[in-house]
User: Fold these one by one.
Assistant:
Number 1:
Amino acid sequence: MASDGKKAPYTLQIGPIHPSLKEPVMFTFEMDGEQVRSVDFAPGQTHRGIEWMGMRRNPVQIVHLTDRICGICGIVHTLAFSLAVEQIAEIQVPERADYIRVILHEFERIQSHLLWAGVAAHELGFDSLLHLTWRVREQAMDVIENLTGNRVNYGIVQVGGVRRDIVPEQYKIIEDCLSTYEGLLTKLLNLFLDDTTIAMRCRDTGVLTRKEAIELCTVGPTSRASGVNMDLRQDYPYAAYGDLDVRAVLPEPHMGETHGDVYDRIVVRLFEVGQSCQIIRQCLSEMPSGPYTAEEKPAKILAICKKATGEAIGRVEAPRGECLHYVRMDGKESPTSWKVKASSYSNLMSWIPMLKDEQIADIPIIVASIDPCLSCTDRVAIVRNGEKSILTKEDLTRLSVEKTRRLQR
């Protein structure tokens, strides 16, 4: 208590994230009771050295490293890196490979958005909805495994194309999966968007205005949920996207207005699941024939890359937004420079306006709403009047669930 009898402001620290995972973050909140008055954070407390390792390997080997930057966005990073190298080495990717890349890219978007939807439901205290979304996500993972051989670290994209073709026998597996999701989409939309409690927890919570989204250079669903009409697949098509009908998913056409809140971020991601199904169907119906790699032997690709000089940027619309890889090559076996900027890096600053004036119980869902590529919060330390107490991640989740239960009553 302050000397005047009022509750004294105090500091609330969240983090850092477990150091073995990338992008650990330390949050520092200035609190007034249960309300956030200001927030700051410090990312980048751990560096795994992937770029350093890559600059000591050749481009064919680096592709396998890029597949391990993110467990959810394997296609994204391998594709972005390959696009950059292909530009420098002037390697022409066959049309069929471009279509296969898009199909796998969109399946990755589907499973990523469904994973996020489950996490969001859990943060709000709806674990039955978590189990439903993660159960239906399994079908997309099964298709990815059937097409690539792996559920994660797919190893399907290579410089010059893809490692495996999609044969006619696999079309039915893909189409069965798409039919399942198209049938489930209405149910998922109803469960998330027509639930009164979810609306009370998410509507006008964690608001990011269109102006703030642009000024903070946000990307992906975080940006589109604030009404920014931006999507690399639409604005700067790569792979086969130039041949496809892709438009950025915005809240207003579906909900009649844009709030830029957690609820709108749910809207964008769920409708993007439906859009991905349509894109995959279009790819299957328009799939060109021909080879699926520029060169069958990786040694030939490597020989071309060793002679290449120049620099390029590969840009890809990841499930979380724009991801880019910068590569510079000087006619040597290894790149002289390789820099990765994942989409989470662009979205982290949006937490500051989102969290201001919100309650402690809303922190978990607001932080999760940008779908950050971060591991679980290690701990929370509260310092009040010089005394420190510890809140675990379970304590934060409990506070969020208790708020949901209060609203339901």
Note: The mean pLDDT is 86.
Number 2:
Amino acid sequence: MKNFDTVIIGAGVSGLTVARLLAQAGQRVVVLEARDRVGGRTWTERSGSFTCDRGASWIHGIDDNRLTAVVHDFGMRTVEFTVGSYQPDGRPIAYYDPAGKRLNDGAIREFADDVRNFDLHLAVSIDASEVGSTYLEAIEATLARLVWEPDRAERVREFLLHRSEEQYGVWAGDLDAHGLDDDIVDGDEVVFPDGFDQLSANLAEGIDVRLEHVVTRVARSAGRATVSSNQGEFAASNVVVTVPIGVLKSGTLAFDPPLPEWLTSAISGFEMNSFEKVFLRFPTRFWDKDVYAIRQQGDAGTWWHSWYDLTALDGVPTLLTFAAGPSAIETREWCDDRIVESVLQSLRGLYGERVVQPDQVLVTDWQSDPYSRGSYAYMKPGSTPGDHDLLATPVDGVLHFAGEATWTEDPATVTAALRSGHRAAENILGRKLQFRELADPL
């Protein structure tokens, strides 16, 4: 049996952040990773000149964001791309009405004002909602109070439904009313033309990471724990579990003794979402110029309603859309060709015969990944925002949890993963740590 000060399960951003900070403090640490790579849900695909992030892509709001400072310290290149948070405007967006006609600037302003006005009333509905209420119920309660004419109400309703899907990969009727309380972006958003996985690669530099180590059991006793994997056992004074909620709920990782009821109850309040990316690279550009995104209103946009223009990243005409919530569930068993044809059919409703076949396609499949079982976690009806932090409460002073689902302020983001890992390291060492230390060499 191999002995360490701390064993970390999972080599995603949260796990590597814990490991790096503890190693810098002089601890003997090891990271056990089931996959054959580091990064977890930050995973960049590279094929020739094609670089795209299968998992996390954005920093949503760079102002006063610890992650922004960390990627800067590592020298990672960023490009401003402020549409990832599903706002009604803020950057040029080409909106198309249900008949496929592009809205003029005045109509877009009126619609965006409706959304902002609705959001103010929606916040009141959410604050007044009963425990167990859904985001959909809050939407409908708000519309009932506003008494808007049907078409106006429907355009805003579908926008809010799409926001739930694109932000959390879930139908609004399955999301707690408070599930989007964190939907606030401070400052611009940025993406990584060289790949977001540079972050995990930098964090892992000099760290003892054991790949293809599938952990099956964590046994703890007074001041000690043993971690069992397919490649042996590891003992330590502390264990940090950073696997996604989907893995915790799957039963593939056992705890002995079982986790306390307060913790299992908090875990049960979350679920992994259904959220996949569809990248399409074309030989020529056929869509609107000088816009960041294209959005389709009405029934034609039920599944494929938003396309993001990534051409500026490397000069090749590229659109990104999402299979999110119901569409991701429905298309899960589809082959890539069928998904692409469905997306192209929607684009033909806007651009007709100008739509050409893509040269290159990439469709993600996080739902089928046994080491994530979805893209990220969302709050089921009945859970509370405080349950995020509850997940991170140490057990018996030995067992710690970190990851995007364990951070209340900005869950479901790489920022949350980073900050939760930092918190776990502070809990173990019993003192404050500086984020700027992460970029220091070991």
Note: Residues 106-174 form one domain.
Number 3:
Amino acid sequence: MKPDELLRIVEQIHLERHIDVETIFGVVEQALALSARKRGEGLDDSDVDIHIDRSTGEIYAYRGGIPIPADEITERIGAQTAKQVLIQKIHDVSRDLVYEKYLPLVGHLVTGEVIRNERAVTLVRLPDVEAIIPNSNKIPYERFRQESRVTALVDEVRKAGSKVKVVLSRTKPLFVQRLFEREIPEIADGTIEIVSVKRMPGKRSKVAVRSRDPRIDLVGACVGVRGARSRAITDELGGERYGGRQFGDRIDGERIDVVPYSEDPDEYIKAALKPAIVEEVILCDMLGRAIVLVQDEQRKYAIGLGGQNVRLASKLCEIDIEIMTRKDLDKMLDDATEAFTSIEGVSEDLANALVEQGFLSFDDLSVIELDDLVALAGGELTEEQALKITDRAEELALELERQEKERRESERGQNGDSNKPSPEDGEQPKE
């Protein structure tokens, strides 16, 4: 390889692949040395070293620190072998540079250009790499137009042969968090902190926030003047730009609820269930459950469309939330007390103690800790008696489940398979 040709190749690789010149010279030296070693007979990998003059392109070779004559260098270095090794090493260096560039970006936002949509993925052009958004990482209903710009979260970066695989996601809760950090300066500078994000992609997200400064209006800061900040986030989450859901003449993106975090579980649950107005929160610590009482007209708002509101609130507050009216609760308490006293060994006082702790069904009773059951009985039960009670509760729970299954099958047989079940109570999309 002639010196001027070598310098031209190094410059070309530098310009095309944006690899540091010194790195390229190092790779070329390694490639030529490997080629020379492969051509030698009876030589190990430490026998030949190559050095290239950075200014002239002249190649110098050494065996054990002793210079090798120029004619022997030419003989040792096979042009085709050197070219193959050089290409492979350049690919490896390029891959490693891309990997090192994108690995720190995992969990952060990037914006790229849509190359094309394939059956299972969308290809996105990022600097130095083609990333993918698998269909499972797309928000339901959204569509990407070719050559349009798309923002996503870097979900995974890994080496795959001679390439780097960058996987993007638009469905992770962290995606919503990063959008909040991007759009809301108070979050970006740490004045407001995001505590938790729970999400149903394309439908609804709940974002819990707090601040050390009590003077800050958390919801107002996150929503912005006339909803400008929250609208920018909502538009990015499957709105009109990405072919969001159509409601009449309006296209809705994902709904965002900003929830002020509170150390008080009652207040936190009430805030998480908005826009519903909550009358009372009853915490059942033994079951990890909260019974939330609302007026009858508020029930549909507390549950939400398809159960979205209560499910996300349960996840956000990390407690199982049950929505009831006062009338529903009173009936359940009476039914549970009567049902529990039908089990041998359960006195009326124990049944009352159980329902006060939120145990409202045989299924609930079957999972109580034996120590807790003995304690609620005031020490009047042995552990063996407590075990008999929980075993009996489990039997009765399974029997009720079997009866309910038979009832549903019977109704389906009478009404025909064409009848669809009625939808759950839920709020209507905002006008």
Note: The radius of gyration is 33 Å.
Number 4:
Amino acid sequence: MDIHTLALSCLRLSTLAILVVLAGCASTPENPPLSQTSAATRHPAANYALSLQGAPYRYGKESPEEGFDCSGFVRHVYRRQGILLPRTTRQMAAALPPISKQAVQSGDLVFFNTDGKPFSHVGIYIADSQFIHAPSQQTGKVMVSNLKNHYWQKRFMGVRRPSLHRAAN
């Protein structure tokens, strides 16, 4: 094989590798940017929750100073709205009225089965299929995720609306 043939083969392989990488980048990102027009129409709880993005994950905690686990995060956000929710995800799911996935609105709670048990994780729906939550020790912080992500779709359990509920159980 002469040098020109070898160079052409390398160029073809490089081009193919770049196309594969670009195809991966063209897929739906985990956290596409939130629509700016939805900011004014978002539930106040969702707007406040977004201000806590990046706060540390800490199991059993529910404050910006100490950090949050998933239910502690939701409980803290709603306490600021004058709504006292139960402490655990399962208690929240049991106490709040279910809403169909098609009727989900900003501020609703979205529940997941992340550890083999129903209603083991919770987040706050923002808009445009996105929700904010304190996912785990592994991710380490409060973050926005997309309900269209395969991981979350597979584990989705239901929606509840805390604005209809004013007392803790």
Note: Residues 3-25 form the longest helix (23 residues).
